Amino acid sequence: MSSDDDTLPTDSALHKWFTLSIEASVKLGRRIDSGKRYKEQLEAAGFVDVVETRYKWPQNGWPKDKKFKELGRKRLLFLPGLVCIRLLNRY
Q: Is the pTM of this model over 0.70?
């Protein structure tokens, strides 16, 4: 977890929570940050010319930019439920 404008200090409670959540998911064998390795995994599976495009995805409705504000609001509505479904489907 990071911020592009350095407003999330690495010593913050939120950053620590996120780091510990990643560590826990690794120990459980169900990484919650697997998206970071999709390109590598696809190439390892034999796909060639894999192109990775990263997009900025705000986590809340705080951005000043109207487009990012809307994306952040939608994330707050939909993502928590999807994460719960994903975790529950694993067990």
A: no
